[in-house]
Protein 1
Amino acid sequence: MTAERVALVTGGASGIGRAICARLREDGLQVAAVDLKPDAAAEVAMFARGCDVTDESDVDSAVAAVLDRFGAIDVLVNNAGITGSQAATTCHETPVEEWDRVHTVNVRGPFLASRAVLPSMVARGSGHVINIASIAGLVAFPGRCAYTASKGAALMLAKSIAVDYAAAGIRANAVCPGMVYTPMTSWRLDQPALRTQVEDRIPVGRVATPDEIADAVSVLASGRMSYVTGHALVIDGGMTAL
């Protein structure tokens, strides 16, 4: 056990999750990560465990292991997520199984992790749940029905937790990135014509880096903004201001 603050990050092996793990460690937190690729997560976290965030028993076991190792979880970052395949497009063209796959990871995952962690936070009278949502949870991404709906749900899950657990000393917020260059988006952003289309819609003229999203999580996780809960923190280079 440790007196230092502890963060648990889901999907910590790559992209935004990896950057969050590295940044929170720099901030002095003890960082645990769960991912389908635990060896990669172990490169940036103090403790890593393989976990399928869509599996209730897997999530419960992973959370129990983190609590056993560190004694507490002060910050839960629900980062694990997917965009869906190219089949996950407009509503009537999206196969039901693809809709379910996106929502199982992006909505069921944060629900299961939060459900597993919250009892220990309630018992201690403090804690912070941070969901990595998306600006797609605020404005619809054309041709990405399943993803847009799932990120809206992830955002509202954070708001629901904020409302239900405020009296217990627990906060919940969502970070809503715009376009970020990660292994998940590189297939698109590595194509010059497609990247230009994306960046032409962003006032600052470029996509974000994972480290810039990690900066936002760092600020929320620091505890300095103790009155902020139920908030959607948009990090999009001005994209949704247009």
Protein 2
Amino acid sequence: MRKLFLIAAVFTASACASPKDRIAEGLTGYGVAEAPAQCVGAQLQRSLSLGQLQELGRVASATRARDPDPSRLTIDDFLRAASEVRDPRIAIEVAKAAGRCNLSPLGFAPAKYEMDDA
């Protein structure tokens, strides 16, 4: 009986977690460092509605299920999932949050410019 009570308490606590905390927990569970994960969670909670966050979560879960390595979620995977949502604002806000939180996509390399001294 006590074991059942502890399990219920854990589920109740996670159900009461804020969207920011849930996003951060999900991201850290897939290998994103704690500080950037908290940052992304805060940014998305501020800029998206609960419905938009739920839609992003559904699409991210479906994307992970198709991933050859579903145990690891990269920022590229997260951006790709966001781009699959019908609401374009979600993809924009995810990209902005990644940029503000210093999470560069793995396939992204800033261009190098050579400047003449002349």
